Each structure stands twice: as C-alpha cells, then as structure tokens.
Amino acid sequence: MSEQATADLWPGESTEAARRLLLAAVDSFARRGFHATTTRDIATAAGMSPAALYIHYPSKAALLAEISRTGHQATLDLVERAEAGGDEPVAQMRTLVEEFTRWHARGHTVGRIVNNELHALPEEDFAAVAALRIRIEETVQRIIARGVEAGAFEVPDLRTAARAVTSLGVDVARWYTDRSSESPEELGRRYGVLVLRMLGAKA
Amino acid sequence: MSEQATADLWPGESTEAARRLLLAAVDSFARRGFHATTTRDIATAAGMSPAALYIHYPSKAALLAEISRTGHQATLDLVERAEAGGDEPVAQMRTLVEEFTRWHARGHTVGRIVNNELHALPEEDFAAVAALRIRIEETVQRIIARGVEAGAFEVPDLRTAARAVTSLGVDVARWYTDRSSESPEELGRRYGVLVLRMLGAKA
Fold first, then answer.
1. Which UniProt keywords apply (chains A, B) (predicted)?
2. Given a cut of 80, is residue B4 above it in pLDDT?
3. Of B35, B170, B165, whose CA–CA distance to B110 is shortest?
4. Residue A71's pLDDT is what?
5. In B, which residues are within 8 Å of A194 by CB distance?
C-alpha cells in the first residue's frame, strides 16, 4: 500500500502509533488472512510489544473494525462528494465512478481485506459497516433515479443497475495490482464511460 | 451450498468420499477462512478421521487446489460453450453473461473461497488456475473483438471492456446470498442487458 493511500485512510486524528498498528494489521491480514493473524504478529510488524498494542486496540478484531469502518467511511464521503459536486446526474455519476474506481485501485490491499473479512467483524461493527454500505448504495440509486426522471438515464431495474455500478468498482480491489497496465486514474475514466453506457446515458 | 451446485462442481469422476471431503472443505473454508482451518476440522465435518482424509488428499492445500481448479474449469467450460453455441457475437455474449452470472450466484460459497484464497494456493496450482483464468478472459475478449469487427459492438478499449464483463460476473459471488431478491436466472438476464449496453450493442 502506498504512503499516500495510508495517509488518505487514516488522516490526522489517529496517533502515529495507532496508524503504524493499522498499517501493520493491513499487511498481516493481507498476507495471512484475519483468522490466522495474531495480535503478536501485528505488534511485531509495527515494532511494538503486544502490551503496547493493547493500549491502542483491545483486540485484532478492533483493528479490523477500525480498518473496515474508516475504509467504508472514506468511500461514502467520496460518493457523497460526487453527488454534492453537481446537480446533473450524468456528471455526478461520471465523477462518482471515476473516484470510486480510482479509490479501489489505489487502496486495493485495504479493499481486499475489508471485503474478504467482512464476516469476521464483531456484530456491532458489522452493523455499523453494513449501514455505511447501504448509504453508499442509496447514493448511487438516488443519482440513477434522478437521471431516469430527467430522461438522462434509462434502466430496466434501478436496484440491479445500482448494484452493478458499485460491484464493478468494489471488484477493482480484487483484481487490480500495482503491475496493472492502466493507472488508477485511467481505469477510472474508462469505467466512467462504460457505466454511463450501461445506464443508457445518451452519448 | 445447494446439492445441485455440488453435483455441478464435482460430477461423476470423484468418489463419494472425495466429494464429501470437498464439500466439508468448502464449508470449513467459508466459515473460518483457509488459514485457520485444519485438516482435522475438514475430516470431522466430513465424518471421517484425519487418516481417512489423507487417503484422498495429502493436505488442506490439495483440497483448496481441487476446489479452485474444478471451479475454474467449470467456469471456462461454460464460457466456451457460450462461444461455441452461436456465431453471432451479441447472442454469444448474452448467453455468456447470463450463464456466468447464474453460475456465480448459485455457487457463491465456492466462488468466494476460490477468489479470496487464490494466493493460498501452492505455486503450481496457482499457475494452473491462472492459466484457466487467462483462457476465460481471452474467450470474452475474442467475442468482443469479433463483435467490434462486425460492427455489432463498439468499445473504447478491448481489454478493459473484457475485464469489466468478467469482473461484474465474478463479483456476484461476493455479494449474492440465498436471500437476494432476484433469482440467479433473473439476475443473469438483467446483467445480460446491462453488459450488452456497456459494449455499445445496438438495441
């Protein structure tokens, strides 16, 4: 994961030690999976003792929850910014897909963990993350619905179309690697074009 | 996982005991993840002793490899059948997307394991599965390329378009559940429509 992506995920509010632990947790979970990772693995990777880890996080599940919550919150922010940034559904959707795609390409390591280990979250954290996911999906649905009303989009089924839009972006985290031939920005632009077509936008 | 999906994945050639072990491995990996699952867990779930398991598979990695290989082979078969089933690219692509989507919705448990644990495969098995994935992707690219030549499709970038088609289908395994509102067949039909639009097919 690049330094930039890390800074994007855990801006100012966290202490340096907490950010180091989150980064170590991401690396450990990515390498071994959540279940096979111990708090000792994470502490060691962060250059700390397990006791020092517990000052910041009570468990490895708490680290996973923090990674998952901040990742989803940042994604929701990005999606809401795309909606707020204009009142023309085609432009809103293009920005949304470009940014959503870029985000999942750049943050593919975190994205993979967050998506693969969702069911390892403690119940309350799972519910919090599920609520963020619903708000992301609803924002996408809202933009499509307004586009349909305005005659800019034409879709056979609103929910399936919204699902396809988010699915395409989320799955970038699964397949994208730093060796992929397109940059995150270029992929975002191409996906923007494909999604607008999928929604029946007039060229 | 439904009985039907299991029978589709491991037809005739496997012994009943081997199929029971594969099914137990799928359940265990889905529940705990590959790394945290022991061969004892799998043997117990299959109602066997660990010693009996080793008669069929030398390790849990061998079970994962078999699940992954058979899953990818079945997916490739389906994609190649769609190509062979007609010579009109629009019809080939519609069938391909319908079947590919249906397959990932029905087999979402296996699909999730296969996609999440790809990097847990021993090197040789990873290479075999990667080769199957490339053939799947190439089949999709071939159909799109023929459609572009025939003037039936119009895409800005062939590789990105093919990637989007497979990505959309593969990601169904991540989000689809038995409680999803659309049946696998209905989702397949809807995705068929969305993908043909994405490829610029004339309505």
1. DNA-binding
2. no
3. B170
4. 93
5. 160-161, 164, 198
CA nearest to A78, candidates A91, A89, A68, A92: A92
CA A52 vs CA A40, A45, B172, B190: distances in Å: 10, 13, 41, 52
Distance, CA of A116 to CA of B152 (rounded, Å): 37
Going from the N-terminus, what domains does chain A have, and what CATH number goes with each? Answer: 60-198 (1.10.357.10)
Residue A159 contacts B where some CB pair is shorter than 8 Å: yes
Residue A149, classified by CB atoms within 10 Å of its CB into exposed (0-12), middle (13-18) or buried (19+), is exposed
Write the CB contacts of B161 (distance below 8 Å, at least 6 apart in sequence): A194, B144, B155, B198, B199
Distance between CA atoms of residues B87 and B5, nearest Å? 29
Side chain identity at residue B110, one-letter code = V
Q: Which two tokens stand for residue B146?
A: 């023929």
> What pLDDT, in 10s, does the model give residues B21-45?
999 999 999 888 888 899 999 999 9
Is B38 an 8 Å CB contact of chain A? no
Q: Give the nearest partner residue to B33 out of A34, A161, A198, using CB atoms.
A: A34
> Structure tokens of A122?
């403690």
User: ipTM of this predicted complex?
Assistant: 0.90
